[in-house]
Amino acid sequence: MYKPKxxxxxxxxxxxxxxxxCFSVTFITTAYADDSANVVRGGLLYDKWYGITxxxxxSGTNPAYPDTSKKxxxxxxxxKECHGWDYQGxxxxxxxxxxxxxxNYKGIAGAMGADTGKIMNLLKDKxxxxxxxxxxxxxxxxxxxxxxxxxxDVPKYIGLNKAVKGDAKQGEIYYNTICVxxxxxxxxxxxxxxxxxxxxQDNPWETxxxxxxxxxxxxxxxxxxxxxxxxxxxxxxALSLPRE
Length: 244
Ligand code: HEC
Ligand code: HEC
Hints:
By secondary structure, the chain is mainly alpha-helical. Helix content is 44%, strand content 0%. The chain has two domains: 36-151, no CATH class; 168-238. The longest helix has 26 residues, at 7-32. Residues 178-179, 181-183, 190, 192-194, 196, 199, 207, 210-211, 215, 218-221, 223, 234, 238 line the site of one heme C.
């Protein structure tokens, strides 16, 4: 059989090329695999997981919830109830003893960037008591993705004094094009929620979380994929909407 002089060299080089191509394809697809939808679903679970899951809904109070705090039953199982809308726990808006949501637990901000496997395990520990009866592996994974990747450093944008570092004029443009069809120019159009102006004034942190993640079980969009400043500017505008 005829073989070119450098037969083995050609084989070796072709093999190297094939390996490199395979490796690059795997790398590129991994690097670009987009999990934004799961991060956002995790944000909705953080808000009120049992509103959008199919598992058991707890009837009693979470054993990890302090006896001395004010909530009972289902509410005591919401992530936000122990860790806050600003993710700062006792260092944030819920850290004030007079707040009806006070638990004195720390926030989740320290777990930004943490390993998702570790976060999933921690949700089954005695501080949490979630089980496979409550949520599926996907639910736990989405929660972990939100904790690790979906949080922003909220105090950078909204102070403890509720000062919002956003441009209300710019926010009005966003609001009047993105939110207005559902909420109306005055934020009063949806009748089964308080006026948006009141929601934003009472809790700008919750408003920011919901603008970025949406509202559990509702058709409201999530602005997570847009630059954070867009959402912050919208909060700044929402503050100016009528309370009554
Ligand atoms: C009943 C109160 C309670 C609820 C509800 C709760 N947690 Fe926690 N969480 C805790 C406590 C207590 C700790 C431990 C804090 C410490 O180490 O001081 C903790 C710790 C954490 C941490 C680690 C933070 C860090 O920096 O080490 C993460 C992440 C976390 N929780 C996520 C969640 C998520 C996600 C949910 C909702 C699925 C949730 N938690 C619901 C009480 C709660
Ligand atoms: C497709 C319609 C739709 C769009 C667009 C929409 N929302 Fe909503 N939004 C809703 C619905 C429905 C609810 C749930 C009302 C309820 O709780 O009954 C809601 C709830 C909220 C809440 C929580 C209110 C509460 O009391 O829990 C906030 C805050 C909010 N929207 C702000 C916004 C902002 C700001 C925008 C624009 C960035 C926006 N929404 C865009 C439909 C929409």
